[in-house]
Amino acid sequence: MKKPVGAARTRRVRAAVATAVLCLALPALAPEAKALLAPHYYEQARREAASVIVLEISAVTPPEGAFGQCQVAGIVRRVERGTAFAAGQAATIGVPCATPQARPPLGGTIYQDMARLKAAPYGRAYLDAAGGLALSQYEALDALP
Q: Which residues contact 118 (CB under 8 A, 6 or more apart)?
């Protein structure tokens, strides 16, 4: 028995509406992206960093809001690459950071967890020639490597 033309049209409309609702809901259900650049760009930034230093952290100053630049201060304990820093030198590095509830803008910036930054006694920073982080490449460390 053939279904009436109106019923077929109603079924197609319902399917289209359900698909649209699902497409709109999926981004809300998916986990947030932590970085939007392909991994090889971050690997390249680490490989080509002008300086790589390991800091013994003395203080982490968070930004005023839920995300931004944490100022990570400490003493250089290891120089793994470069001549801009020396062991024993004081240094402060701006590290992108965020609270778990923060909604930073989409982009290539990798935001470190603020609590993790504050808890880590050491950190490895991959720095460009100007002394800034190369593509947000900072690693919180539990021990001196």
A: 60, 62
